[in-house]
Amino acid sequence: MAATEIAFEHVSHTYHPPRGKPVLALDRVSLAVREREFMALLGPSGCGKSTLLYLLGGFLPVEEGRITVGRSPVAGPGPDRGIVFQNFALFPWKTVRQNVLYGLEKQNLSRAERERRAQEFIDLVHLDGFEHSYPSQLSGGMKQRVAIARTLAIDPEILLMDEPFGALDAQTRGLMHEELLSIMERAPKTVVFVTHDVREAVYLADRVAVMSARPGRIKEIVETGHVGRPSPEIVKSRDFIDKVDYLWNSVRQEALLAQSERSGAW
Amino acid sequence: MKPVVRYAPLLLLALLWEVVPRAHLIDPRSLPPLSAVAVAWWDLVTSGDLWTNGISSLVNLSAGLLLGVLIGAALGILMAWYGMLDDVVHPLVRALYPMPKSALIPVMILWLGLGAASKIASIFMGCLLPAVLSAYNGARGVDRVLIWSALAAGATRRAVLWEVILPAAMPEILAGIRTALALSFILMVASEFLIGQTGMGYLISFRGESGAYDSMFAGVLTVSAVGFLADRAYLWAMQRALIWRE
Known about the structure:
A: six-stranded mixed β-sheet, globular, B: elongated
């Protein structure tokens, strides 16, 4: 298995809106993600955390600075980095099974092997019985499970998640957290998880990187101190509550800063 | 609504069409009663005139429509995908769009002569732009995360065009084809008015000029009915093809 440590070195990114002035979205971001680490990127909306993820995914060109995976710089998207988006990004014209098969068809696998793997991952996310449903017939939580199965089926070494549970209700989100953790327990991966939900970040991640308001920088990195898989019990612990409280204030400062800058700009 | 109720206005119209000329409220030479039109229609069927002209029309229509839709959709998608092509072609599309395509029929006759080629070319011109624009808009509207998902799964850019852009744009493309279908009937009849010898448009204008008004009306009714049925059939097929939509 190839090395999967990730390094952002002085990465800047300027966004050019169709009309109006260019906006500096990321300002010399440096961040190292360890092998098989679960890293959460936390920050107020508009801080560029998703942009950082898209750069790592290779969807946007790295114009300034360097991003490396293992030792090699990122040059375009690839099946070594699977991604799950907030709004699922399923192919609506494909059934659940066809969606999960899509990436497998790009690999050098026999038909039987593809089918077997697709079914394995559909079962893994508890969607057996829905193989022939179209995404439009599924609930939000089910759609996101399909998206996770589709991404995991091609066995990426790195999993990028862009607010994957942001569109789900609280109950479903909690269930999805447990599913994700149990999947990661069975097949550990390096995960970069973008969220603006502080509790989610502290619960899931090994480390939480807090981003500043635009232009995005890494403000601080906080260890969550989990040993092994977090259990639902830890959310009641003093340590968990303190960390959430601390990070919540840290993000809030940035959100207020962003707000005052915005009103100043008017 | 029950079909009987829904089509009641049509039945009423048919009834008036029969009664009004018979009562000489309108000169029957201007509007032959519907029953006379029906008899003339049956004559066209038994004499074979309806078949020869109808088949000629349908062949030209299918050829023009198919070419226009295929080339138009391909062009529209490529325009959306390749900015350079868009820069060159889009101003042309914009300039040509408001132009009534029937105005091009004499140009086609000049270039391609008085034959099927000119008819097909005219129908093609009418169908091209609706297909281009619908495919273009459909392809431009594809959510970038769908493209990214495919690329992250290992798809090449060319594969993305076939496997993501085309199916994602399909609802718009199919709606554009429906517009093209309606336009193809208009251009079919219009081109056959000007280019003689065969076709439903020719049959209508020839019977009209020779005073066989009941046959003329039979031709008009046939074209209308076939156009209506084609649209219904297309709509049905389109809904089946897009069954995945919510």
